[in-house]
Amino acid sequence: MKLLQNEPLRHHTTMGVGGNARMFAYPETFDEFLMLLKERYFIIGRGSNLIFTDNNFDGTVISLEKCFNALSFEQIDSKRKLVKVGGGVSLKRLLRECVREGLHGLEFLWGVPGSVGGACHTNTGAFGSSFLEYIKEIQIVNQDDKGIKSLKREDIIFSDRVGVKSVIVIDALLILERGESEERLSEFRKWRRGHQPIDKKTAGCIFKNPPGDYAGRLIEKVGLKGERIGDAGISEKHANFIVNFGKATFRDILSLIEMMSEKVFEMFGVKLELEVEIVG
Ligand SMILES: Cc1cc2nc3c(=O)[nH]c(=O)nc-3n(C[C@H](O)[C@H](O)[C@H](O)COP(=O)(O)OP(=O)(O)OC[C@H]3O[C@@H](n4cnc5c(N)ncnc54)[C@H](O)[C@@H]3O)c2cc1C
Questions:
Q1: For the whole prediction, is pTM greater than 0.85?
Q2: Would residue 97 count as lying in a domain?
Q3: Are 175 and 150 part of one and the same domain?
Q4: Residues 214 and 262 in one domain
Q5: Whose CA is nearest to atom 52 of ligand 1?
Q6: How far apart are CA 196 and CA 173, in angstroms?
Q7: Segment 252-262, tens digit of pLDDT
Q8: Is there an atom of ligand 1 within 6 Å of 86 CB?
């Protein structure tokens, strides 16, 4: 298996910051994967919801993209197909293949640079839909006892941006219906390109939307759009995104996050909750 020593984590996250991992591993078989779980580890998807601190990670960061990367379709009836997809598959590939199969439902994932495993963990959502709504079952490895089991949809407790915790998702089964997706795809593509800095280094939305409001709106109202600390800046396009303009450090980003949260609390009394995960 491919093992990288003292690997900069900034190369593995969309935000592009972080210290080094003592080891970064791409297991290729199930046995290799299980072996890596014996020591301290962290499972990474595409690193698109993560901000690693500048500290080094004293353990192994494990990518599942080489061992859980299968994708197949099975007809259920004239209207529906069962999609079996590995936890390491990118959402981009999943969406592309589903559209090719004439299935619709996942168009809301256009432009989300994550993986199936990451989407199950965070219950990735947009435009009123979320990933776990489409799940029939997931195959998981329990982080505590390393046992493998299946979780049926009714066993999974999920809500807005809250998905499965303390488990490693190795496979997911989704049920999708036949249907045209081009119109919704082009609508969502246009919206994302117009409203989010998707061509820049970011970790997506920093904060969850508070009930009945938008974190971006509140941050904009306190006048922080465009604010910069070092090479980190609050996006001019969407105030809930922090952009790494070059050599931003974790410290720069954290200072901006604290500023956003404090100012919004001062002015609106709203406590913003992080959507991104800070690790390390
Ligand atoms: C430009 C941009 C747009 C975005 N738009 C959206 C959006 O519209 N909606 C939204 O919800 N999010 C959005 N995001 C955030 C992010 O892309 C999603 O949360 C994504 O699904 C995370 O997947 P990932 O593979 O990158 O996970 P990572 O960031 O790598 O990891 C996130 C968490 O998932 C865990 N994890 C990863 N793989 C597994 C696995 N196999 N089993 C169990 N746990 C696992 C990790 O340990 C970590 O705790 C956006 C991000 C960017 C950069």
A1: yes
A2: yes
A3: yes
A4: yes
A5: 204
A6: 30
A7: 999 999 999 99
A8: no
